Amino acid sequence: MDETFTTLEFRDEKLYLIDQRALPTEVSYIACATYEDIEFAIRDMIVRGAPAIGATAAYGVYLAAKQCTTETDFRKACQFIALARPTAVNLGWAVNRMVNVYDQNKQLSRTQLLQALLAEAHTIREEDIQTNKKMGEIGTTVIAQNATILTHCNTGALATAGWGTALGVIKTAFYEGKNIFVYADETRPRFQGARLTAWELKQANIPSKLIPDSAAATLIRDGKIDLVILGGDRVAANGDVANKLGTFALSVICKAYGVPFYSAVPISTIDFSIPDGSAIPIEERDASEVTHIQGVQVAPTDMEVFNPAFDVTPHQNITGIITEKGIIYPPFKENIAKLKQ
Ligand code: MRU
Fold first, then answer.
1. Are 187 and 216 in contact (CB under 8 A)?
2. What separation, in Å, do the N-terminal and C-terminal C-alpha atoms of the chain show?
3. Is there an atom of ligand 1 within 6 Å of 313 CB?
4. What positions carry a catalytic annotation?
5. Segment 177-193 mean pLDDT
6. Which helix (DSSP H) or strand (DSSP E) does residue 252 occupy?
7. Cα separations (Å) of 139 from 77, 237, 322, 328?
8. DSSP strands (E only) in 234-309
9. 122 CA to middle of ligand 1, Å?
10. pLDDT (tens digit, 9 = 90+) per residue, 1-41?
């Protein structure tokens, strides 16, 4: 069953984004008419999730080509979009893919060039949905009948152009008729699990419970979790995975108790140029995300804060990486290299 909302949709020369800052209490859409609007939407997390920000950026490049009168200005605008958030490689990947289309078509008329760019942005969006469906078909094989699954952050339709990565795998298993149960980490400090994953799980009628992040260790130790499936924002060439803060800690607990730990990512999330996780740039976000909850102050005024949005899970802690081309198992370095060819 496809979702009843659209994460991103281009019509009337604007990109409409569901405002993920307002969910689940308010379902509203924001229209982006310029590449500056797109950059802001990514930076302020109106749209978030690695594949979703990639597809959004693709439309941003189209709008940049429409707005800019010189090639220099266009390239600056593309760079501006690509720098909106540093960790998810899908952002730079989508911008580069669009700039390549620009380079291949810039000798054509302006109308033809813009047509080619818009067509490519539509392709990136559509491919992402199909990729997620494929990942679902492949990933469901690791979910047994009656499995209890733990997930972290939001990896559903909201984090992608549609369907989802890790949550897409979970939904596929459920719609196939598997009797599953899902525990969703609330995912502090921005509550992507509580606000977004819980909303998607409810819409899909998947039996589930929301837990504080720190309850996961107890569930795992007590044998209540059969496997963990979550997403990824950038996978290094050796299989280290950068994902939402808290992923690393979960992987350590899973390893200690022998619980399978899977990351589900499209191949566009693999950064073949980065040898290991130490080279992945980790975004640090504003202190107010920790000192305040929904605008309410919960820490002393001017308290100093460390607020990394992501962490890196070493490949030694990962059972398998689910992609649209199959599940990658150790040795990750060798098996990831085969995907590049
Ligand atoms: O900061 P966010 O909400 O953009 O972080 C998102 C995640 O960490 C997701 O797990 C990741 O992008 C994979 S989503 C398909």
1. no
2. 34
3. no
4. 233
5. 98
6. helix 247-257
7. 37, 21, 6, 11
8. 234-235, 241-244, 261-264, 292-293, 296-297
9. 22
10. 678 899 999 999 999 999 999 999 999 999 999 999 999 99
Regarding whether 298 and 163 lie in a shared domain, the answer is: yes
Ligand 1 in contact with 159 (CB < 6 A)? yes
55 and 106 both lie in a single domain: yes
Domain count, the chain: 2
1 is a domain residue:
no
- Give the distance (Å) from ligand 1 centre to CA of residue 46: 13
Ligand 1 and 173: CB distance under 6 A: no
Per-residue H/E/C for 140-167: HHHCCCCCEEEECCCCEHHHCCCCECHH
Mean pLDDT across the stretch 119-148? Answer: 98
Residues 25 and 63 in one domain: yes
Residue 115 shares a structural domain with residue 144: no
189-210: average pLDDT: 98
With 90 as the cut, is the pLDDT of residue 133 above it? yes
Whether 158 and 61 share a structural domain: no
CB 191 within 8 Å of CB 178: no
Task: State the DSSP H helix or E strand holding residue 124, giving kind and residue range, or none if neither.
Answer: helix 110-139
Environment class of 301 (CB within 10 Å of its CB; exposed 0-12, middle 13-18, buried 19+): exposed
Q: What is the pLDDT of residue 341?
A: 66
Residues 160 and 275 in one domain: yes
pTM: 0.97
Backbone angles phi, psi at 322, to 5 degrees: -85, 125
